């Protein structure tokens, strides 16, 4: 199945083998980074059931809120998101590209956080969406997340709108490697370097002091010596027009839209909700807290994705 976010050839095969070597976790959800909310209301369950039952070609967009139950923090959740817990902000694209110091800081923090971040497993919500795809209910899935949890769950009809942290590429020659391979390069360059994280942030990041990262060595591209960057769209960068057009095409083939775990504050995802509204598609939103879609969505549900989605019967 073609996706605008898929890689080709050997790299693609290696990536899938790497993900599928992990077992899918069916343990109780980790609610550390999930905002407080009431259990699903039976009326809301019935309303979402009706929405899904009436959908024949469902377009689903997910955000960070679907992965918080896997133990990954998000940015905006009230009380538990990064913005609520700290004044730290994610790195900007321009800063990463122009500053060797910024890249050193980013990669040092990512190096420390990677073992835990890469071990996170899909939760019930990811598995439900995978099953909907298998049943032919879900036409296309677009995730704003970069955590690879949908891929680990087995979703295939999917576009990773903002890329994936499990891939790394060279800004100069475009060569791609797995993030796990880069971890080995980091370890070889920094055999005695150690740092204890002072906190956890989204997208594989942790908190370190400037003093901790000062001696951290960052490898260059092994093919051309260029700058290595995670294959993700940083804040301040834009999603490629090719990928945007591809997603618009999948939306045009759909008859309804479900947003799960996203406040849709970022325009790169919000634009597709605007397009769905213009096409007069029914839109359901499942998210704890307000979203940019609340004033025009057909249905708004304030529940945990991993708690509500498994209650929906899909045939």
TrEMBL record:
It is found in: Mitochondrion matrix. Zn(2+) binds at residues 170, 173, 221, 224. Binds 1 zinc ion per subunit. It catalyses: N(6)-acetyl-L-lysyl-[protein] + NAD(+) + H2O = 2''-O-acetyl-ADP-D-ribose + nicotinamide + L-lysyl-[protein]. Keywords: Metal-binding, Mitochondrion, NAD, Transferase, Zinc. Residues 38-315 form the Deacetylase sirtuin-type domain. The keyword Zinc applies. It comes from the Eukaryota. Its EC number is 2.3.1.-. The active site is at residue 162. Belongs to the sirtuin family. Class II subfamily. This is NAD-dependent protein deacylase. It comes from Catharus ustulatus.
């Amino acid at each position: 199945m073609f996706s605008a976010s898929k890689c080709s050839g050997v790299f693609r095969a290696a990536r899938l083998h790497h993900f599928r070597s992990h077992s899918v976790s069916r343990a109780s959800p980790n609610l550390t980074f999930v905002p407080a909310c009431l259990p699903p209301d039976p009326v809301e369950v019935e309303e979402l059931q009706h929405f899904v039952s009436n959908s024949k070609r469902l377009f689903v967009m997910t955000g960070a809120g679907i992965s918080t139950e896997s133990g990954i923090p998000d940015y905006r959740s009230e009380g538990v998101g990064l913005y609520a817990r700290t004044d730290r902000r994610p790195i900007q694209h321009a800063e990463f590209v122009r500053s060797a110091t910024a890249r050193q800081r980013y990669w040092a923090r990512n190096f420390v956080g990677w073992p835990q971040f890469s071990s996170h497993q899909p939760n019930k919500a990811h598995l439900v969406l995978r099953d909907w795809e298998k049943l032919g209910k879900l036409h296309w899935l677009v995730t704003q997340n970069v955590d690879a949890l949908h891929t680990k769950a087995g979703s295939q009809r999917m576009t990773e709108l903002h890329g994936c942290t499990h891939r790394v590429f060279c800004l100069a020659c475009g060569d791609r490697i797995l993030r796990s391979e880069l971890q080995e390069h980091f370890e070889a360059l920094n055999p005695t370097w150690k740092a204890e994280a002072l906190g956890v942030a989204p997208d594989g990041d942790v908190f370190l002091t400037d003093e901790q990262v000062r001696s951290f060595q960052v490898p260059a591209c092994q093919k051309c010596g260029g700058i290595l960057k995670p294959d993700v769209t940083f804040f301040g960068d834009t999603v490629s027009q090719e990928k945007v057009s591809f997603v618009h095409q999948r939306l045009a083939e759909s008859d309804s839209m479900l947003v799960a775990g996203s406040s849709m504050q970022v325009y790169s995802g919000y634009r597709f909700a605007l397009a769905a509204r213009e096409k007069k598609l029914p839109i359901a939103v499942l998210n704890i807290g307000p979203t940019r879609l609340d004033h025009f969505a057909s249905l708004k549900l304030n529940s945990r994705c991993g708690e509500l989605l498994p209650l929906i019967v899909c045939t």
